[in-house]
C-alpha cells in the first residue's frame, strides 16, 4: 500500500506520493525573482532555507488559468543525483489516501490536457479520478538546475 496526498489545481485532481511531500503551508510570502521561466513564481523562506515556488498551471500548460491559489505544497525531487525542495501552488488539498499499486490505471491517450509523461497513472478514490504526478519526469535536469539557481538569487 502506498499513501498519496490529493489536491486540485484548476479543477483538475492530482495526487503525489506522500514520501515526496514535506509540508503543506497556508501562510507564506513569495518573493519575486527576475529572469526566471514563467512557471517559477519566485521563492519563499522556509525554515531559513530559500525554496523556489512553481506554478503547475503554467508548467503543465493549462489553457484555463483559475484564480490565485492559497495553498503551497512543499515537495522534493531527486534527479540525476540532485535533490531540490520546491513549493507548488494548489487550489485545494483534499486528503491522504492509500491504495495498492495494482489499482493504478493507465493514462488514456486521448483527451489529456497536459503532458502525460508527467504522470505515473491515475487512481479512482470515491467519485474522483486523480492523476498521479511523477515529479522526476516533470522537470528536466536543466530545469532542476534552474530551480537550484533560483535559490541563489
Walk me through the structure:
The chain has a single domain, classed as Beta Barrel (OB fold (Dihydrolipoamide Acetyltransferase, E2P)). 13% of the residues lie in helices and 46% in strands. The protein contains 3 helices and 10 strands; from the N terminus they run E-E-E-E-E-H-E-E-E-E-E-H-H. The protein has helices at residues 56-59, 135-138, 141-152, and strands at residues 2-9, 12-17, 21-25, 40-46, 49-54, 71-79, 82-90, 92-99, 119-125, 128-133. The relative contact order is 0.25. The model has no long low-confidence stretch (mean pLDDT 87).
What brief labels describe this structure?
mainly beta, OB fold (Dihydrolipoamide Acetyltransferase, E2P), five-stranded mixed beta sheet, 153 residues, 3 helices
Helix content: 10-25%
* Overall number of strands: 10
CATH architecture: Beta Barrel
What is the count of structural domains?
1
Beta-strand portion reads over 45%
Task: Provide the CATH top-level class.
Answer: Mainly Beta
- Under CATH, the topology can be stated as OB fold (Dihydrolipoamide Acetyltransferase, E2P)
Report low-confidence residues grouped into runs of 5 or more. Answer: none
Query: Largest sheet, described in full?
Result: 5 strands, mixed
Q: State Rg.
A: 15 Å
The secondary structure category is mainly beta
- Please list the strands of the largest sheet in the order they lie side by side: 8-1-2-10-9
Give the SSE order as H and E letters: EEEEEHEEEEEHH
State the fourth-level CATH superfamily.
CheA-289, Domain 4
Instruction: Indicate the mean pLDDT.
Output: 87
Amino acid at each position: 500500500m502506498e499513501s498519496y496526498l490529493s489536491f486540485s489545481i484548476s479543477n483538475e485532481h492530482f495526487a503525489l506520493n506522500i514520501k515526496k511531500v514535506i509540508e503543506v503551508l497556508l501562510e507564506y510570502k513569495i518573493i519575486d525573482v527576475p529572469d526566471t521561466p514563467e512557471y517559477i513564481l519566485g521563492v519563499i523562506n522556509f525554515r531559513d532555507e530559500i525554496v523556489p515556488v512553481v506554478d503547475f498551471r503554467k508548467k503543465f500548460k493549462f489553457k484555463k488559468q483559475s484564480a490565485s491559489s492559497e495553498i503551497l505544497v512543499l515537495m522534493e525531487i531527486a534527479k540525476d543525483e540532485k535533490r531540490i525542495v520546491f513549493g507548488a501552488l494548489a487550489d485545494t488539498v483534499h486528503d491522504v489516501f492509500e491504495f495498492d499499486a495494482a489499482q493504478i490505471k493507465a493514462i488514456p491517450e486521448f483527451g489529456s490536457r497536459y503532458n502525460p509523461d508527467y504522470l505515473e497513472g491515475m487512481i479512482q478514490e470515491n467519485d474522483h479520478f486523480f492523476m498521479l504526478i511523477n515529479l522526476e519526469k516533470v522537470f528536466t535536469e536543466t530545469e532542476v538546475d534552474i530551480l537550484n539557481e533560483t535559490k541563489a538569487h
